[in-house]
């Protein structure tokens, strides 16, 4: 009995011991598994550290982080969101999906704020919640989460989601998002691992972004200093340590040469007082920036007056000063051009008023002879007299157009023009033949590019400009010589002398060169002034020629450069922007029947009595029924009780409403009223506004029978 009980107790003890051993083995396996997991986690973190220690770029940092996480964790999708403190919003910085497709935002976009896709504010969505609280957020199944839809926009299915804040110095700089296409893939125990990962990631991203920010700032400011038109130099202990390309150009030295050269060697030695003052002031820049005007010596020995702005800085942890250097000769050239423009503007205001009155007078000299010629037999001796009167009026009208140029109202940039044609037409014109009579020993040689591109402008004004340049060149060669005229296509991408802010692009360049006496420096400053001339009066006109040249170039959005050497000659180089439009087809002269009317009613609106009389006579001769009024107010009163087929509407009427205001009121009582616009000035913005309201063609005073007839005919046929 005792023996049996003893055997039973032994058996129970053995069973208990085996169970205990099994439990211990199970615990040991768990410990071993946990140990292996920890070893794996530590190995992963060590791998991340080893990789990130040798990575400096933001792109490589993001790529390494995402690769290690996807390779060593259950996560199948991973993204990094960073916080923009200024906007207080998260944006997507990097992401990787299950097939390895990678997205990484360029570092420069992070700093420049270009092309950033902003997502959530702090507390907004799951990622925003993690950011705001500074604590991980685990979503076991997104299908039952109300926050998920507004959280992550993704093309892959996401069921499990873990968002962990990236924290540096107790401040969240972003969020690390890990996800899986199946639910319940992340356990609470995983949070500790990912917290460790996020800590390494935060440190790596923070340091990398600081490094990239320094590179971005350096590149930005280097690009700024190297592209700026002022010379920039950094001086430390009296020596050059940095100079931008413009400074190298101003001095003529290379970067390496300047680094061996003290600043004092560049200051002109003949200006000792100024040099001493400058050096003394530069030594005491802590109080405030200083500005100096000094002479700077070029490597070739030339001296230029420059303006230096200097300020104290710290460079490579040592005191230094940075200075900007501006060549004052360029500024003075610009100031001279501004003064020139102001003079022309003032002269133009006066000229514009004179030209307006002259146009009214010339209307009779041009239009009435034309009407009389219609009634005069071809064999009548009066025809020659009438033609002379008409041609004299047209020549006077051309002078008026020169005055209008000065008034800045004389160019209509609307035609497609070929400069080769302008040159060829002039060299085959009576005007050129007349020039040859006065200058028989002067020849003109043309070097025209065969496929020269077109420009947009006024053929009349461009022709006048070219004629003035050739005439000037001939006057400069009293002993004879050759004028070289050239055209070429040229791409301009850098400043032209006197023009720092050019519009980059294709230009047609017109050059007129002579081997004459040259232009004296004191005369060079005045050549574009109105009524300034050294020509023989009576041959070349009014003294407006070079003013017209300057105005034409300006109105055509072009540039002009003048190079002249006493005793050697002068070269004018004109730059005109290219147009890709095709040349228009020229209309042949038409018989009067082609632009005559058939009793249609015309209302002439003009404040000048003589203009109304001239226009009425011309239109009646063309077969129209004509009435006239003297103001916008009278126009409205007339149209309240009368219908007309077309208005001939003067743009400038004084006093009262001008053409634009009149037409605005007209179409209120007569919607769709047809009209053409007339003016003694050229096409303006107000003319274009009238046309945008429904008015038709613009015609210039003094009227020519064919032009006004065709304009009315075309408008009536619409």
Overview in brief:
The protein has 718 residues and is of the alpha+beta class. It has 20 helices and 24 strands.
What can you tell me about this protein's structure?
The protein has 718 residues and is of the alpha+beta class. It has four domains: 55-216, Beta-Lactamase (2-Layer Sandwich); 229-331, 2-Layer Sandwich (Beta-Lactamase), CATH 3.30.450.20; 411-579, Heat Shock Protein 90, CATH 3.30.565; 592-716, Rossmann fold. The chain contains 20 helices and 24 strands. The chain starts with a helix and ends with a helix. The model is unreliable at 535-543 (pLDDT under 50).
Break the fold down into its secondary structure elements and pairings.
Blueprint: H1 2-53, H2 58-72, E1 77-84, E2 89-96, E3 102-104, H3 107-112, E4 118-121, H4 125-133, E5 137-139, E6 160-168, E7 171-180, H5 190-227, E8 231-236, E9 239-243, H6 245-251, H7 255-259, H8 272-282, E10 290-297, E11 303-315, E12 318-327, H9 328-375, H10 382-406, E13 415-417, H11 419-427, H12 430-438, E14 442-448, E15 454-457, H13 459-475, E16 481-492, E17 505-513, H14 521-524, H15 545-555, E18 559-565, E19 569-579, E20 601-605, H16 609-621, E21 625-629, H17 632-641, E22 646-650, H18 659-669, E23 675-679, H19 685-692, E24 698-700, H20 705-716
């Amino acid at each position: 009995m005792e023996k049996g009980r003893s055997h039973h107790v032994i058996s129970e003890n053995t069973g208990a011991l085996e169970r205990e051993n099994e439990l211990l083995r199970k615990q040991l396996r768990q410990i071993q598994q946990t140990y292996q997991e920890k070893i794996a986690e530590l190995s992963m973190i060590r791998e991340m550290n080893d990789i990130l220690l040798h990575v400096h770029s933001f792109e490589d940092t993001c790529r390494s982080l995402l690769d290690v996480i996807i390779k060593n964790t259950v996560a199948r999708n991973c993204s990094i969101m960073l916080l923009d403190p200024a906007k207080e919003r998260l944006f997507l910085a990097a992401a990787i999906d299950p097939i390895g497709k990678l997205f990484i935002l360029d570092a420069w976009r992070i700093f420049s704020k270009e092309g950033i896709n902003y997502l959530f504010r702090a507390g907004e969505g799951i990622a925003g919640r993690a950011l705001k609280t500074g604590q991980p957020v685990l979503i076991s199944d997104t299908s039952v989460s109300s926050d998920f839809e507004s959280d992550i926009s993704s093309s892959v299915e996401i069921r499990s989601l873990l968002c962990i804040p990236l924290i540096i110095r107790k401040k969240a700089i972003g969020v690390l998002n890990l996800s899986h296409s199946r639910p319940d893939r992340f356990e609470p125990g995983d949070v500790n691992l990912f917290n460790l990962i996020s800590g390494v990631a935060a440190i790596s991203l923070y340091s990398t972004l600081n490094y990239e920010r320094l590179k971005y700032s350096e590149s930005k400011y280097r690009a700024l200093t190297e592209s700026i038109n002022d010379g920039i130099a950094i001086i430390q202990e009296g020596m050059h340590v940095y100079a931008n390309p413009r400074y190298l150009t101003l001095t003529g030295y290379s970067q390496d040469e300047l680094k061996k050269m003290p600043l004092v060697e560049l200051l002109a030695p003949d200006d000792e007082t100024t040099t001493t003052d400058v050096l003394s002031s530069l030594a005491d820049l802590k109080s405030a920036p200083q500005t100096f005007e000094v002479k700077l010596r070029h490597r070739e020995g030339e001296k230029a007056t420059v303006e230096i702005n200097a300020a104290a800085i710290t460079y490579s942890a040592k005191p230094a000063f940075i200075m900007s250097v501006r060549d004052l000769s360029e500024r003075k050239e610009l100031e001279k051009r501004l003064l020139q423009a102001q003079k022309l503007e003032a002269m133009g205001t006066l000229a514009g008023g004179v030209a307006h009155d002259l146009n009214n007078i010339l209307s009779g000299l041009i239009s009435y002879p034309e009407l009389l010629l219609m009634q005069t037999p071809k064999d009548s001796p009066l025809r020659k007299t009438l033609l002379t009167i008409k041609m004299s009026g047209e020549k006077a009208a051309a002078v008026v157009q020169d005055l209008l140029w000065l008034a800045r109202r004389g160019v209509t940039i609307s035609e497609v023009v070929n400069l080769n044609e302008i040159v060829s037409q002039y060299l085959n014109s009576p005007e050129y033949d007349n020039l040859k009579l006065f200058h028989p020993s002067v020849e003109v040689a043309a070097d025209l590019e065969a496929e020269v591109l077109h420009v947009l402008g006024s053929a009349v004004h461009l022709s006048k400009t070219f004629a003035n340049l050739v005439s000037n060149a001939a006057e400069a060669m009293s002993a004879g010589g050759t004028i070289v005229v050239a055209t070429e296509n040229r791409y301009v991408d850098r400043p032209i002398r006197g023009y720092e802010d050019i519009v980059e692009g294709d230009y047609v360049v017109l050059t007129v060169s002579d081997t004459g006496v040259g232009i004296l420096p004191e005369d060079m400053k005045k050549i574009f002034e109105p009524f300034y001339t050294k020509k023989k009066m009576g041959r070349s006109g009014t003294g407006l020629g070079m003013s017209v040249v300057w105005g034409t170039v300006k109105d055509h959005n072009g540039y002009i450069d003048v190079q002249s050497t006493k005793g050697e000659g002068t070269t004018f180089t004109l730059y005109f922007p290219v147009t890709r439009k095709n040349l228009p087809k020229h209309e042949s002269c038409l018989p009067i029947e082609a632009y005559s009317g058939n009793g249609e009613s015309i209302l002439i609106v003009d404040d000048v009595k003589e203009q109304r009389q001239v226009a009425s006579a011309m239109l009646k001769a063309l077969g129209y029924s004509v009435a006239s009024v003297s103001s916008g107010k009278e126009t409205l009163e007339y149209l309240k009780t009368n219908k007309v087929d077309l208005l001939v509407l003067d743009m400038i009427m004084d006093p009262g409403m001008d053409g634009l205001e009149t037409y605005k009121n007209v179409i209120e009582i007569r919607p769709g009223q047809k009209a053409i616009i007339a003016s003694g000035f050229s096409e303006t913005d107000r003319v274009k506004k009238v046309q945008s309201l429904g008015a038709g063609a613009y015609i210039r005073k003094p009227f020519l029978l064919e032009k006004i007839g065709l304009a009315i005919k075309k408008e009536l046929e619409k």
